User: Fold this.
Amino acid sequence: MLMNIDTRLTADSFETDRQHFLAYLSVKGRKDSTLRTYSEALRSVHRTMLDMGLVKSIRDLTPDDVLQIKDALSIGETSKKLYLIVVGRLQECFGLENSVKKADILWNNVEPRRLFIRPEDFKVMMASCDAREKVVLMLGAYMGLRRSEMCSICWHDLTGNILTVHGKGHGTAGKVAHLTVPRPLMMALDSWRQVRPHSVSDNILLTADGRPLPSSRIGAIVGKIAKRCGVMMTPHSLRRLFATTLYETGADLNTIRMLMRHESVNTTVNCYINVNPIVRSNALDALCVALG
Assistant:
């Protein structure tokens, strides 16, 4: 009985601390997508704590607690690191010592799995898509938009063939960019506008019942298309296709960086172009042809 009482009190304490922390972040200008990520991180850590029988507030975690939670979290190393960083930031929000920093965790340098697709894959998928699916694929492959950017754009953001995008970055507006919409995408948007569900929302992408499409649904849409066409990919594969195709068609790296809206060209090269094994293979083939 005592455990049940303690667990309930801990749940109440967790919810109060979580809401206080998110309100603090909101005042600091963090985007809604960041707040959702932080909230899910805290919920996952709290669930793990309860499964471990660790009945205390997240703000009261010790370095030893942090190390135990790290081992108990059933997620990848990169996600573990992010989730525990959020725990430390919550503690700092309350003016407490960051037990995650004090734990001094030695993280494994795990290379993320980056899936690339080729233009041929993209064409096969496009041929199988309905009007909304085509817009999703083309926003990624023709403009390099991220999932959250796709779901946040509205019809009023489109002036002629110029789309205003509120991209990744701090502040409620994010990093504002004015991007040219290629003609094939303009045609796809016109086709989608004619069949999209009736809605009071101005969002371009909608659910079947006319609500704004949440960014979490982009993964499901892309996954459905990929499975249907026998292609291994994620939504971010479309952004990699955008960068890699620009590179292979002769665009210089700084131009690609600007179109990707990266601060550093190193991000463009290391995460979107150079790691593509197909590009490496093609380069070696070209070398062999040149050398005879």
User: Anything to note?
Assistant: The radius of gyration is 22 Å. The chain has two domains: 2-103, 119-291.
